[in-house]
Amino acid sequence: MKILFVCTGNTCRSAMAEGIFKSMVEGIEVYSAGVSTFSGGSASNHAISVCSRHNININNHKTTNINELDVFEMDLVLTATVGHRNDLKRYYPDLNVYTIKEYAGGYDDLDIKDPIGGDYDDYDYCFLEIKEALEKVAEKIGCNKVDVLIDLDENGYSKYLSNKAKKS
């Protein structure tokens, strides 16, 4: 399965979504792009810092303009906003495209606010908003997310092991 995350500049929301989702799943190809960006730039400094604080590395992220991708190779395209979704639907009527929150389900506001120009806390809020929705997306597409596995060490004490979700 191939999933593409889309926002405006591919420096904040879609870059973080790609990093977050890659950390949650295995066996799924994850990409990101922007509808209004040049290719080869980096993620914003705050996006990199926030992801790093949550143990997700997007230091080597390079921006990609959506026009450089064959969007029809993607099984699912998830956008940051309704505006992005509608633009893609207008240009690619047969594209399997939703907002991240729309596909996740359970949200009234389907947009993820752009943190660009905001402070660290704005980016952290955006990160947590994306992560919450992507946990629902992972469950919906059939990823069995295991947050913590409990095992006993050689002395009989509990130890905690993290595990990525795997496509079933």
Succession of helices and strands: EHEEHEHEHHEEEE
Assign the CATH superfamily: Response regulator
Shape: globular
* Helical residue percent band: 25-40%
Strand content: 15-25%
Count of helices? Answer: 5
Given the helix and strand composition, which structural class is it? Answer: alpha/beta
The beta-strand count equals: 9
The CATH top-level class label: Alpha Beta
Oligomeric state: single chain
Please give the CATH architecture: 3-Layer(aba) Sandwich
Strand order of the largest sheet: 3-1-4-5
CATH topology: Rossmann fold
Main sheet summary: 4 strands, parallel
- Determine the N-to-C terminus distance: 12 Å
What's the mean pLDDT score? 89
Mind explaining what this structure looks like?
The protein has 168 residues and is an alpha/beta fold. The protein has a single domain, classed as Response regulator (Rossmann fold). Helices cover 34% and strands 20% of the residues. It contains 5 helices and 9 strands. The protein has helices spanning 13-24, 45-53, 82-91, 100-104, 120-140; strands at residues 2-7, 25-26, 29-34, 76-79, 97-99, 143-144, 149-152, 158-161, 165-167. A 4-stranded parallel beta sheet has the order 3-1-4-5, with helices on both faces. It has a 3-stranded mixed beta sheet with strand order 2-9-6. α3 links the parallel β4 and β5. The longest helix is centred in the C-terminal third of the chain and has 21 residues, at 120-140. The chain is globular, with a radius of gyration of 17 Å. Residues 144-152 and 157-168 have low confidence and may be disordered.
